[in-house]
Design goal:
single chain; about 190 residues; alpha+beta; eight-stranded antiparallel sheet; two-stranded antiparallel ribbon; 6 helices; about 25% strand
């Protein structure tokens, strides 16, 4: 079963065979990446191969299996040379964020891990990242608008944005979950 919401650059799939569905999906040229759980790790796959993401104690490890899907090889080498990884190769969230802020896929290990561990409310079996220029959604919506851009993907253009605030509290790059507490400390929205 395919789940699509709005016009976005990701989609969710429910299946009993996530690995085989993922392999079939990445064969489509409109699909950039697919991710799914395999035991205790998140697998990220593209048309060339796969890599694994593991997390222990809020640290994340990125391990190419047969391909450096996220193109993180040089980043990983630099982080480990700088002593940022522990003996198992796990790296802190802050170090991943800082090292990949301007990368093609910013903060991807943590974002992908969290997608399967709490960020996505109804976690699917396969998350699909769609290439720029394409989107998932109800085709009827495209009759009402000219699609120039959307959101939901993992790459830089779909991930980075700016924050405007008159509080003067935004002083550095931030993860999305940090923005509201920084701009309005203590604010709790009323949900009815």
């Amino acid at each position: 079963m395919l789940e699509i919401n709005g016009l976005v650059t990701y989609a969710a799939v429910r299946t009993h065979t996530p690995e085989s569905v993922a392999k079939a999906l990445v064969a489509d040229s409109r699909i950039e990446l697919v991710t799914y759980m395999e035991g205790e790790r998140v697998i990220v796959r593209d048309v060339h191969g796969s890599a694994a993401i593991e997390s222990h104690h809020r640290k994340v490890r990125y391990v190419p299996i047969d391909c450096d899907v996220l193109h993180y090889g040089p980043v990983l080498t630099d982080l480990l040379k700088a002593g940022k990884g522990d003996s198992a190769g796990d790296i802190s969230d802050d170090d991943w964020f800082a090292a990949t802020l301007d990368h093609e896929y910013p903060d991807a290990p943590r974002r992908l891990w969290d997608a399967f561990h709490g960020t996505v409310v109804h976690t699917p079996d396969v998350l699909v990242v769609i290439r720029d220029g394409y989107c998932a959604g109800n085709p009827t919506f495209e009759k009402f608008i000219h699609m120039a851009s959307t959101h939901g993907g993992l790459n830089q253009v779909n991930s980075a944005t700016f924050v405007m605030s008159m509080t003067g509290r935004v002083k550095r790059p931030m993860k999305s979950r940090e923005i509201l507490p920084t701009i309005e400390p203590g604010f709790q929205p009323v949900v009815k």
